């Protein structure tokens, strides 16, 4: 995980979830961010797809219920093909 | 273990019951619980039927975390027969436990992958969670107008929910009902402008025969999108012995169309109080015969004693037919939503111009009526 990737995801998460950036950490999840419900989860998914120009598989979408997993999924998808 | 979408099979019944118990513990009403038997009571998949339902579950190891239903049905779309799927009763554990907030999106995206030409209907208003999610996923949405005709204004004014929502309105509605002012006002608004086909007759029928196939062949091409309404499909949807009343409307020289109506005595209903409510749930005719069918169905329900007759219809010719028959248009929460792959075949996608044929016979069928 790079700091640059985390910063980009944090900025988007804070914007979509309507919380201050400072409150978003790698441990932020749908269980501890009050506004992170089903509709905001979808909006976060779509915002990340737009930002990184990719599409998540349905199975990846519910894996992304916390920042740590979002970064992990993005890390896999953004990895250059070897 | 990642969550996967799987067809509902017998071995998952206990897990579905446990899922429903968790929903109930979170305060979710039973009507939003998932069916506890994998074979649908309504429209099971059998024989070579082209209209059936399938249940799907979101499975997390041995736990069920969500479920949705697809109803498959043949439609005539731009003159070609095509199977479309109706997405309904999506329910996710995310509504009681935010740990599962992603399940709803997972199920919806999976359904769209399985069946790109997907649609949803009803949903209770644009501000509800499902329409909000569909809009974010670029589904197109249009409201299906709601029509009503009041046969007994005094009872209507006393019973109908919007008039009973505040004490001042309740008092005003009571006074208007008592003095007859409400009767005069409603009757003045409901002026009938349409004329019947000469020699129109109406007949209660036990089932749909080959005449219904002839009618379907004759008039289905008039509509850009319409669910197949041949006799085989209609006899599955509206079998004898149920609460439906099937009516055939004939002119002097031809069958004009048919209507399926319900006549229900409501009991403390949240919208209709204790009114006797007639519903024109489904119908079919060529656009030029719509006024005759609407007028005949409304008269049949009035004769049976309905205080109020209601209907939803999307098609412009039918909307005009309801207005001409003296129906008033009320606020609707019945939404048609089309996934992008379906919406692109229905342009322009706008409530006022949409040439789709949708009523309460589509989607879940005439439930809650």
How would you portray this structure in words?
The complex is a heterodimer of chains A (82) and B (369). Helices cover 59% and strands 0% of the residues of chain A. Chain A is mainly α and 82 residues long. Chain A has one domain: Orthogonal Bundle (Non-ribosomal Peptide Synthetase Peptidyl Carrier Protein, Chain A), CATH 1.10.1200. In chain A, helix 1 (3-17) crosses helix 2 (38-52). Chain A is globular and about 35 Å long. Chain A starts with a helix and ends with a helix. The mean pLDDT of chain A is 92. Chain B has 369 residues and is of the alpha+beta class. Chain B has 2 domains: 4-115, 3-Layer(aba) Sandwich (Aminopeptidase), CATH 3.40.630; 146-329, Gcn5-related N-acetyltransferase (GNAT) (Aminopeptidase), CATH 3.40.630. Chain B is 29% helix and 29% strand. In chain B, the strands form 2 sheets. In chain B, strands 1, 2, 3, 4, 5, 6, 9, 15 and 16 form a 9-stranded mixed β-sheet that branches. The longest helix of chain B has 15 residues, at 290-304. Chain B starts with a strand and ends in a 12-residue tail after the last strand. The A-B interface holds A 29-31, 36-43, 45-46, 58-59, 61-65 and B 2-5, 58, 92, 94-95, 98-107, 109-110, 113, 129, 132-133, 136-137.
Secondary-structure blueprint of this entry?
The complex is a heterodimer of chains A (82) and B (369).
Chain A: H1 3-17, H2 38-52, H3 58-63, H4 67-78
Helix pairs in contact in A: 1-2
Chain B: E1 4-7, H1 13-25, E2 52-60, E3 63-77, E4 80-92, H2 103-114, E5 118-123, H3 129-136, E6 140-143, E7 146-150, H4 153-159, H5 167-179, H6 181-189, E8 201-205, H7 210-219, E9 225-227, H8 231-237, E10 245-250, E11 255-265, E12 276-285, H9 290-304, E13 308-312, H10 316-324, E14 328-330, E15 334-338, H11 340-343, E16 356-357
Parallel strand pairs in B: 4-5, 9-16, 12-13
Antiparallel strand pairs in B: 1-2, 2-3, 3-4, 3-9, 5-15, 6-15, 7-13, 7-14, 8-10, 10-11, 11-12
